[in-house]
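Lab notebook page, bench 4
Experiment: in silico fold of construct C2
Operator: M.H.
Input chain length: 154 residues
Purpose: comparison with the prior construct
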Amino acid sequence: MSKQNDFYLTKEGLAELEAELKDLKENKRKEVAAALKEAKEFGDLSENTDWDDAKSRQLFIEGRISELENILKHAKVIEGVSGDIISVGSTVDVEIEDGKHTFQIVGSTEADPDQGKISDESPIGKALLGKKVGEHAEVEIPAGITTYKVVKIK
């Protein structure tokens, strides 16, 4: 569905990533710089665990900043979702053997199955894309095949 460098995001997801990036640049960088300065004052850096910890945090923060900048550079905001056909951004009510479930189809960056947000690249997401109300999507899972009946698209 997406080109390799595209990241599909809802408006909310985009705002969350922008806020995280701002926090990393404006706050976390300063915090780690202060920790590095403090650790350096203890002298010998070869056996200084505070220095090692701060350097590790710095590497993580800079890596995350780079990752977020790349995602935001290639972000495609999900807009104008049709209620007739399941696409990225759709919220879908489905029925399976154990009852009804609601999923929102999102880009892989925003996926959070515990919150009902499933990736368009996941087996369930792929199977549901393009379906209409009343249609069935079959998904192969380790226990066999599960059939999802589309009940409602929002």
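Observations: Helices lie at 11-40, 49-73, 123-128. The chain has a mean pLDDT of 90.
Next step: discuss at group meeting.
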